[in-house]
Amino acid sequence: MGGSRRANLRLLLFCAPALIVYFVFKLIPAVSGIGYAMTDWNGLSQDYSFVLFDNFIAVFSDTYFWRSVWFTLKYVAVMVVVANVIALLLAVAIESRRRAKGVYRTIFYMPNMISMVIGGYMWMFIFTQVLYYMADNWGLTFLDHSWIGDPHYSFIAIIIVASWSTVGYLMIIYMAALQGVPADLLEAAQLAGANSRQCFFRVTLPMILPAVTICIFWTLNSGFQVFDVIYALTGGGPGRATQSVAMNIYEEAFRGNIRYGYATAKSTILFVIVMVITLIQLKVMKSREAEL
Amino acid sequence: MKKLLSLLLALCMVFALAACGSESTPAETEGAEPPAESTEPVSEEPVEAELTIMMSFPQFMDQWETYCRQFEAKMLEEENIDLTINLEMPSSGDYESVLQTRLTGDDAPDLFTLHSNNIQTYYEAGHLTDLTNEELAGKIYPDVAAMVTYNDMLLGVPIESQAWGPLYNKAIFEECGLEVPNTLDELRNVVEVLEANGYTPFMLAFQEQWVPQLMTALTLGGKVSGEVPDWVDRMNAGEGSYSEMEEIFDVIDLIMQHGTDRAMETGAEAGAAAFANGEAAMFVQGTWASGTIMSTNPDMQLGVFALPVNNNEDCTKINLSVSTTLAVHPSSDQMDLALKFANYVLDDEDSSALFESCSFNPLATCHTYEPASWVADANVYVTEGRSYKDLVLPSAVTDEQGRLLQEYYVGSVTKDDIITRLDEVYAQAIAG
User: Does this complex have an ipTM over 0.90?
Assistant: First the structure.
């Protein structure tokens, strides 16, 4: 009895630093935010009044907000597929190599270590200067698009930059999972006459499903909160064509009318949307995992 | 066991850090005493003090750093205070959000800059100190002082005042034998002649929404001051509409149709550099871009003209405004020093050099320097009475104008959409 209690206590102690930081910087602001969502605070004055659910009702007729929600949904859908497929491909390709695994792993992971804002500005330079230079001087006219100004192309640009920086992270998770696939299972499958594609889809993929769950969960979650790439790359423009929900909330809180309470109401709604979607995703994926 | 040890160590470090944090607070408050001690003999050890100043123009970082150092030296010599000034300059895009966070987080800087349009809001929120009785108040030109005064109180030290309009390249205009236009027809003619001579008339740099926004600032300003002086009042009362201003799109269309390519890919700085290199003859930007332009091309012959809105010359005027204003926060624990610094900004001996090096316009009696050629250009309009006070619109509306013009440029909204949308946003802004 005493031993297990001590063990629990010790485990708790190990978690304490992370828990305390999470509690102070995430949980408390999140909960108190719901309180602010019911006020008309403008983020500046010292007094404000409670307006109860007025903010939430106003959100429902806010076309710009719902347009940004729609844009974010599109972004998340594309990112979940693109980033995970590329990450898995890279992981498999690198794992199947005999030599220099470490080198490739480092190279593909590197963009993840660069701050997204800096990466965004780097890519902005590429999209606004380098590509045009190539188009003008080397005759690569297929590059001559309005990469920032045309909403269609700027969406592609955003996906490129976002995948560039997240793929490395997902790749590492997939690689770890791939290393955990027992070699004897694969060997048995090969002996039974399975070709390499069958091996991958029938043996490897089911074995790494837990990693797929984590990666999709992570891309969903971070996708809904996307801010820095878009902020650095297009600033949400032209107009609001590439504005994500997070940017819409930021704009409401810090620019223009500075409606802090209203912005908090919006972020509460975003929180609910993200929670519902990730809960569904976890439930679906977990049940799949259990079958195997 | 090893792990437990390392964990304990980590915890110790956290507590040690926390302890450092709490110790520094009394150290700062000690600094509040110097004013009382300053009368004592100079042989005493200098008293340490700290001032935090936040400013919104990183492009003038060097000039203000130097000025702060001068002030530190002056304080050490005159008051025997070993002053350290922490000068913070967040990028202008983020400035307001950073400032707001600091003000609401009880971490207000001793002095900070704000746009003069926001003086009323900030004053009512209790963030501004009345400077009416300070020495500096008597030096500011009355027209300028009026723009930083609210309820008969002088609430800020004006720093940047602008008399501005679109910029033009004098060399190109001269080469084509062109005069500065006074009406829309003359501007159309200018555009035609420039294109006939192989020049692109307008530099377009629309990546950041505040740059296209300048077109609305200038056209609305001209139109309102020349023909509909009560428009802003009526808008604020909820009785006006942007449809009265439809005419402004004549000149906006002209600019957009005769500008450089890839406008959405060009930022304000890149645009200024390209303009300096002669890629276009005119640039709807303000005189604040002169820094970038002159450093890109020191031989640039830069001029300023008033943007015509229509064929009524009364509407062709220069925009006169005070933008950046320095305020003292009432909660400053170094009030005396903060006020001294505010006064020092308009110091009789040193202020001129500072304002000249930042190419700010002279705005107080202590400013005795020759202004730059483009400043002089604009001042000609002002002395002729052809200027108006910058329109004060709700900042949500100003923001929206810029965004809608970006969308207008890429063709995703029409003129009518813009008018409807701006009326909506205006209604929302005055209701909130």
Answer: no
